[in-house]
Amino acid sequence: MSAAPSLDHFLDFGITENEWRTVLAEATAFGADDADLYFEHSTATSVGLSDGIVNRAHTSVDLGVGIRVVVGDQVGYAYTEELTLKAMLEAARIAREIARGQGGAAPVPFGVRATHGSDFYPVARHWSDVDVGERVPLVRAWEEAAFTKDARIDKVQVQLADADKYILIVRADGQVIADYRPMTRAGVSCVLVDGDRREAGGYNVAGRSGLDWYTPERQARLVSESVRRASDLLRSGPAPAGEMPVVLAAGSSGILLHEAIGHGMEADFNRKGISIFADRIDSKIAPSEVTIVDDGTLPGARGAINMDDEGNATEKTTLVENGVLRTFLHDRISARHYGVDPTGSGRRESFRHPVLPRMRCTYMENGPHDPGAIISSVERGIYCETFSNGQVAIGAGDFAFFVRQGYLIENGKLTEPIKDVNLIGNGPEVLAAIEMVGNDLEIDEGGWTCGKDGQSVPVSQGMPTVKVGKLSVGGGAR
Amino acid sequence: MSHTTPEDLLALAHSVEKRARELGASEAAVSVSVGSHTTVQRREGKVERATAATTRGLGVSVLVDGRYSSHSTSDLRPEALDRFLDQAVAATRYLEPDPYRGQADGDLCGRGTTDETLDLLDPNLAAHSAEDRGSAAEAIENKLAELGDDNVISAGVYVADGSGTTARVMSNGFADVSRGGWFARGGEMTLSEPGGKRPEASAYYSARHLADLPDSDFIAEEVVRRAAERVGSRSVDSGTYPMILANRATGRILGVLGAPLSGGALHQGRSCLKDKLGEKIGSSKLTLHDDPWRARGLASRPFDGDGLVSKPRTIIDAGVLKQYYIGVYHGRKLDVAPTTGGRSNWIIPPGERSAFEMAKDLPKAIWVDGFMGGNSNSVTGDFSFGIRGKLLEYGEPVQNLSEMNVGGNLLGLLERLAEVGNDPWTYSSMVTPTLVFDDVQFSGL
């Protein structure tokens, strides 16, 4: 297993304790309620196959430091990709402008503290120790396996991407914390042709894991799911239109939670009063069988974090407990505003971005129902199985998610496959309209990415089979 | 960083290109960029967030023994750059040869127009100060406060600008520098509504030159007007309605065209526009130009990502598809001459009438001025998007709309383009007027 994340990683870049102290002192010279330096060094590799050739690779190196100065809920932020003392001091002077004349707290002298205690993503080898040559046979094998699955395959594309990210956070309260974060994502995409019909389908898997995460079972599933999805699309028809009952399959249906409630629970929106959930803590918003959590502690999950991006320990945060709204997702700014502990939800895309409260892995806990019974309870509706993307309006609560594939439900049975339809609803109304929760929770293994304020962070999501009484389905006339 | 002038950037790019060849690359293409940007956000009478940075980066693509790879780094320390190039070339050797890779003939590469014509860098940008940004943000905020009523929960303002310089050097002899700047301003507002919903709206504008942005009062008025249009929104009956697609919102629908027009999608069998060159794919009212030479255009450029000379093109002429987007690599794979690998400014020439004049002829129509989620399928052209807008009767608003979707097939939709307005939106790279489509499928209740 890998060594614990080391405070020493940035010594190679000339960043010693002397640099931390000098730069942080400059950043907090006007006082500050909070301040931090966020050093990041990331290396990433992707290898791709098209037309039968492992024909491209991309590698990247990202290095820099973000400097944040906080006064109340005001943030000054600057970053530089040049880790010289001169460039860092210049950035510190820009970031601290927010504090000029505000009389914030004086900086606390710090001692070097230990790293966090968690290790939710141990890997045998860091990705930077894996040659491109070790990735090539995997990519090639997945393509070859795909072609054996279905004679109608016209094209196959494969990609394997991975990254090592080293971070070091130096905080004005004296904490110095490091983390190492691996990430990998593999995708297989197929184009199938049948007569004059043509469809592209794909599947991907992602996690904070190393090379050995690609077990024979996972590799087989990556390929077979990709072909199955493209094949199902070929026989899918258009979705119906209008309001109707919707059954969400276990797994990636967690996208509904992400959009319908997750974003609305991010405390920055609530602090400003602009979320529809802003004044609903401790009120009943869903039936009692609904419990929704946001969890940073699932080992190897894409949304797992040992600590958040301001050095707070991560946790499993209960957003909704037996139908009652419980806790917002906090960063340090909102935690201070509400007088609560941070929930370990302060995240950022990279050193180029200030911290925001964000989701990690959002899912609904199991309920009492058998999934088969949920489907058979619907006379006419749709069953949603795979998804591509979603969006939410935080204040109005309106949200949407795009269903790539699903089925009609007619008289309690899955019938015709359907595809490519947007579903739209209102968060609180849809949560209140949840009628049945299944006992088959599944955390999706796909490579989900959440966007907010121009920042992308990796997330996971999960769901048991769930029935919603009414959602607006954006299909055509049938 | 030490490399700040265009000459310094070019010199670094030349040295990296040379070093890549010394390490065994048969050819290399190198881009070196520097830039800076500053953002100020205000809310509740104070600065909410102020962000600034100077940035730098280097990208290189190499061909080694017929094998292709690309690489990027922000670590430009000389010793790190040497190691980075060593590893880049070494990694490439593990791949398989791709006979279609390779740079374009040097004769095809170069500059299509001058920096003077493009006018992408406002001479006033360098002197634009923190005080200028602060007073611009305060002016918008003050106007929002003046216009807002008791229902305003919160209002925010965004003011930003930035600039960048990129030097590009290729082994085929291409070497040039592109520069540009931008300004962006906008605001957002959240209102309270009986029942607990907090409808929100925003209005953002960007331009190459500060003088091309609307003034503070106009921005604030648009934010307030758009927020008021979200109050009391609901869905109406599913059915077919004429769609009036607001000039600022066309990007999401026209964007569906982007993927199937690309050489990659054509070659991979993922395009609903395959074999349609020269065919009618839309109404004769539809003409679409790609203009990389548009003065102060947000996507204007002297050359494209392959180094190819930029030039204006007509993509769709009176409904007939005239061009695909084909870069050098996919041109070789498809055995056709390359055009350009990606779009620049999209221009739909304006028509005669205003949005209101077009709307008042229609007994009932859905005005769409924003979207909520949704996606499209480039293989089939099918799309389904959530919408924000309002129901109009003879041009008069009768109901603000939400929780509705618009769906259909791209080709069917383009055929039903009925009229093009006279009001091109100039604050994006999609410079398009308001568009009216007949018989569009909306789903709601």
Structure, explained:
The complex is a heterodimer of chains A (478) and B (445). Chain A is of the alpha+beta class and 478 residues long. Chain A has helices at residues 17-27, 85-95, 132-149, 216-234, 255-262, 267-271, 332-338, 371-376, 427-432, and strands spanning 34-50, 53-71, 74-80, 153-171, 176-194, 197-207, 237-238, 241-248, 292-295, 316-321, 324-325, 346-347, 356-357, 361-364, 380-392, 398-410, 413-426, 434-437, 442-443, 448-452, 455-463, 466-474. In chain A, helix 3 (132-149) packs across helix 4 (216-234). Chain A is globular, with a radius of gyration of 24 Å. Chain B folds into 3 domains: 6-34 and 52-117, PmbA/TldD superfamily (PmbA/TldD fold, 2-Layer Sandwich), CATH 3.30.2290; 119-164 and 179-228, 2-Layer Sandwich (PmbA/TldD fold), CATH 3.30.2290.10; 239-443, no CATH class. Chain B has a 6-stranded antiparallel sheet with strand order 3-2-1-4-5-6. Chain B has a 5-stranded mixed barrel with strand order 7-12-13-14-17. The longest helix of chain B has 18 residues, at 130-147. The model of chain B has no long low-confidence stretch (mean pLDDT 95). The chains are: A alpha+beta (478), B alpha+beta (445). Strand 2 of chain A pairs parallel with strand 3 (67-73) of chain B, so a sheet runs across the interface.
Layout of secondary structure:
The complex is a heterodimer of chains A (478) and B (445).
Chain A: H1 17-27, E1 34-50, E2 53-71, E3 74-80, H2 85-95, H3 132-149, E4 153-171, E5 176-194, E6 197-207, H4 216-234, E7 237-238, E8 241-248, H5 255-262, H6 267-271, E9 292-295, E10 316-321, E11 324-325, H7 332-338, E12 346-347, E13 356-357, E14 361-364, H8 371-376, E15 380-392, E16 398-410, E17 413-426, H9 427-432, E18 434-437, E19 442-443, E20 448-452, E21 455-463, E22 466-474
Parallel strand pairs in A: 7-17, 8-15, 14-21
Antiparallel strand pairs in A: 1-2, 1-4, 2-3, 4-5, 5-6, 8-22, 9-10, 9-14, 10-11, 12-13, 15-16, 16-17, 17-22, 18-22, 19-21, 20-21
Helix pairs in contact in A: 1-2, 3-4
Chain B: H1 6-22, E1 27-43, E2 46-64, E3 67-73, H2 78-92, H3 115-118, H4 130-147, E4 152-170, E5 175-191, E6 200-207, H5 216-228, E7 239-245, H6 250-254, H7 258-261, H8 263-267, E8 288-290, E9 313-317, E10 320-321, H9 328-334, E11 346-347, H10 355-360, E12 365-376, E13 382-393, E14 396-409, H11 410-415, E15 417-420, E16 430-431, E17 435-443
Parallel strand pairs in B: 7-12, 11-16
Antiparallel strand pairs in B: 1-2, 1-4, 2-3, 4-5, 5-6, 7-17, 8-9, 8-11, 9-10, 12-13, 13-14, 14-17, 15-17
Helix pairs in contact in B: 4-5
